[in-house]
Structures are given as C-alpha cells and as structure tokens.
Specification:
3 helices, Nuclear Transport Factor 2, Chain: A, alpha+beta, 4 strands, about 45% helix
Length: about 140
C-alpha cells in the first residue's frame, strides 16, 4: 500500500510540474505575440525575422516572411487589439510546441491569427504563422 501511495504521489507531482511548465510556456508565447504585434506596428520586420525558428524556414524563405508581414501591415494597418481564444500544446519534429489562436483587430480589418512557437529556456521562437482574413482578397 505504501508503494502505491508513493507511486501515485510521484505521478501527481509529475503532472503538476508539467502543467506549470505549460502555463509558463503559454505566458512566454503570449508575450512574444505582443512583441510581434509591436514590431509589426513599427514596421520592424527584421525584428520579427530575428526570432524565426529554422524549422519555419523549411516551409518559407526569409524573403517570403518579409513579404507576408509587410503585406499584412500594408493591407490591415496597425494592430489595435488581440485576444487569445485558444491554446494547444503538442510536438513538431520532436520539439514541444505551443499554438495560440488570437482574434486580432487591425486599423483596417480583423483576422484570426494562429501562432506556433517553440519555447525553450524562457524564449519563444516562431515555428509557424497563419492569418485568416474573412473578407479580404490578398493580391
């Protein structure tokens, strides 16, 4: 009985530590979204590019990232507000990842942004980004 109690306590401690880590990673990722929005508002695309994960570069070039964020800023303007609506954790290429979905209001419209980050040692790097803009044609 004593061994069972010790095993249950160990499992519970592991779960609690894991939950705290996920919560801490979410806070780091949310703070990174604020930073990205500030960089976007200031047209600091180089700042955004400085925290791109090498994994993201498998799917899009740095010039593609620059074009994407420049077009978002040009078409939608500055970020006015952004609210996190969902958070998910998982693994991408054997790395832990957190995906955050935000409803974002810009000067000229609104969109649903999806950010995927790798968080390690209190630092978030961008693994993926998507924006859905329901009533806008991208040219």
């Amino acid at each position: 009985m004593k061994q069972l109690l010790i095993a249950v306590c160990a499992i519970l401690a592991f779960v609690l530590i894991g939950c705290n880590s996920i919560a801490a990673d979410k806070e780091v990722a949310l703070a990174k979204i604020v930073t990205i929005h500030e960089q976007l508002n200031n047209q600091d695309i180089e700042g955004i590019k400085s925290d791109i994960s090498p994994m993201m570069l498998k799917d899009i070039s740095m010039s593609g990232i620059e074009k994407m964020f420049t077009m978002i800023h040009t078409k939608l303007g500055k970020v006015k507000s952004s609210k996190n609506t969902k958070a998910m954790t998982g693994n991408i290429d054997s790395e832990s990842a957190i995906t955050l979905i935000n409803d974002t209001i810009f000067e000229k419209g609104k969109g649903v942004e999806t950010f995927t980050f790798h968080v390690k040692n209190g630092r978030a790097t961008l693994l993926g980004y998507n924006i859905r803009i329901p009533d806008m044609k991208m040219e």
